[in-house]
Design brief:
By secondary structure, the protein is an alpha+beta fold. It contains four helices and three strands; from the N terminus they run βααββαα. It folds into two domains: 39 residues, YefM-like domain (YefM-like fold), CATH 3.40.1620; 46 residues, no CATH class. Strands 1-2-3 form a three-stranded mixed β-sheet.
Length: 92
C-alpha cells in the first residue's frame, strides 16, 4: 500500500481531497510539519479494521501465553461452562 506524504497546509487547504483519497483509494496520508512526519490520516473503515486486527493479535498473544503457562482446559469443559453460564442468564 502506497503512503502519501503531504504538508500540513494541505490538510487545511485540501481536506476534502485528502479525505476522499483516504476513503476511496484506502491510501494513508502522512501529514508533515516543517518537513517532518507529524500525523497519519486514514479512512475510518481502515482505522476500524486496524483496530480489530490489533485486538485479535492481542487476544492471540494472550492465548499463546496461556498455553505456555499451562492455563488450558479440555474443550468440553469450556463448552459446558459456557452452556451453564447461558442457562443461568436465560433463567435468571
Amino acid at each position: 500500500m502506497e503512503t502519501v506524504i503531504r504538508p500540513s497546509s494541505d490538510l487545511r487547504n485540501h481536506y476534502s481531497e485528502i479525505s476522499k483519497q483516504c476513503r476511496e483509494e484506502r491510501t494513508p496520508v502522512i501529514i508533515t510539519v516543517n518537513g517532518r512526519g507529524d500525523t497519519a490520516v486514514l479512512g475510518l473503515q481502515d482505522y476500524y479494521q486496524m483496530k480489530s486486527e490489533l485486538e485479535l493479535l492481542r487476544n492471540l498473544a494472550d492465548a499463546e501465553e496461556d498455553v505456555k503457562q499451562g492455563r488450558v482446559a479440555p474443550i468440553q469443559d469450556t463448552f459446558d461452562d459456557i452452556r451453564k453460564s447461558l442457562l443461568v442468564r436465560k433463567n435468571g
